[in-house]
Design brief:
Shape: globular
Strand order of the largest sheet: 1-2-3-4-5-6-7-8
Number of strands: 8
Oligomer: single chain
Helix content: 10-25%
Structural class: alpha+beta
């Protein structure tokens, strides 16, 4: 009887401390960041910051000078990254995760190399990511810069 109870206790203990890689424990740095990141984040960027492949001539006077960069981080670990610049719309999908130390966001795309962005600041409705502006539709990577996002 003692052996059965001890075995049940051990089994229950191990199942409680095993970590779910998709949803980290909420009391870990990556768990807190994971929950804060979920949702839609938006940055309005100057068209001069866009890469050549995303820039479009004659996109319309109301949108020619700016573009909308959006990340939608889903609770299941999937995400959508999109850019809207005038009539042009580019979208990429993939999976996201938080690094072990909770300081970086890892973006995985099918058939492409993963991207990493340093999380410089995150609160309920504000976030600053530091990464190179490799945007949808462009494989070129340029210098690292900080991107300021608001939660939508």
């Amino acid at each position: 009887m003692k052996t059965v109870l001890f075995s049940i206790f051990l089994l229950f203990s191990f199942t409680n401390i095993s970590a779910d890689p998709i949803n980290p424990a909420p009391d870990t740095p990556q768990g807190k960041t994971y929950h804060l990141l979920q949702g839609v984040w938006e940055n309005i960027v100057s068209a001069t910051e866009l890469t050549e492949t995303v820039r479009e001539e004659n996109v319309g006077p109301e949108n020619a000078e700016t573009a909308q960069l959006r990340y939608h981080f889903c609770s299941n670990g999937a995400f959508v990254r999109s850019i809207r610049h005038g009539s042009q719309y580019i979208e990429e999908t993939g999976a996201w995760e938080i690094s072990e130390d909770g300081a970086s966001l890892l973006l995985h795309f099918a058939g492409k190399e993963a991207e990493q962005a340093a999380i410089r600041y995150i609160e309920a409705d504000e976030m600053v990511l530091e990464q190179s502006p490799r945007m949808p539709g462009n494989a070129h990577q340029t210098e690292t810069k900080q991107w300021f996002f608001s939660k939508v």
